[in-house]
Amino acid sequence: MIRSLVFTTQGRLHSRDIEVFLMPTVLNDTNLFLWVDLEAPTPEETKRVLEDVFHFHPLSIEDCVMVSEAPKIEEYQPREGDLFPPYLFMVIHAVDYSRKDGVFATTELNFFLGRNFLVTYHEGPARSVQLTEERAVRGTGGIARAPDRVAYNLLDSIVDNYKPALDELAMEIAELEQQALERPTRETLNKILQVKKEVVHLRQIIGPQREVLARLARGEFKLIRAHLVPYFRDVYDALFRISELAQSYADSLTGTLQLYLNVSSNQTADVLKVLTLITVLTAPVMIVGTWYGMNFETISEFHWRYGYLWAIGLTVVSTWLMYWWMRRRGWL
After folding, report:
1. Less Cβ crowding at N or C end of the chain, within 10 Å?
2. What is the pTM (predicted TM-score) of this model?
């Protein structure tokens, strides 16, 4: 699906969803800015926009269409024979966390940023694109005055969308800590290990994106105007804080895992203690029963009239003495 928005340099909406053959005309008008959003496009739509209209470099088109595991940013300058204007190509990942599945889902968002155009490409619905488009159409904050300003708002929205995911993760970790303390089952252990794996995955996502935003925050690219560099720096700072928060979650999960192991160890020790006490308390019964179970004729108690009662009394008294001694030592 191809969506297009045309804005004036004052940030007002000029037109939307124009025909593809009109896009080169809009690009030649210095008073207009074109934003084209490709959501789950067909190969024909991808070719018409990325190749036929904008003539982007084949390598950037390939990186855009193929799933990229790591965020990246590259600057393309035209050489002799190239038809494309200078532009930045950027790959960023948005995240969402599902407590039901216990995994972080990533959505890849690709940017082609030029002086008077912005092309975004994504395979599924992107919350950041939808929110930024709504703000741009309403004219909120004049965000549609230039492509770099819209790109900043997209990145800012992506980073903001990390916060609900991290809130869900924080609640999940708190529940795991409670479960590890109260009822440390094997299911709890599996859940702790799964969430810890997802936190590591989150840090693997955030790390490369910090490098991308760091380059934007340092003002390395001429297509990002100087007065917008502090805004990109603010997005970088927010992502840095999220990265630190993810590290604290990883440390918390390590502590939860240690808590689980300690509680499980204490439970095992309690079970062994009970079994040991049972064994010790039943030792007199076992000794007396084993002794008189040998059935030797020379055992005089067999011929006693009250020998059976004597054996029972001996068992009861010795067991009580063992119990009293253990209570005095504080073992019971």
Report:
1. N
2. 0.74
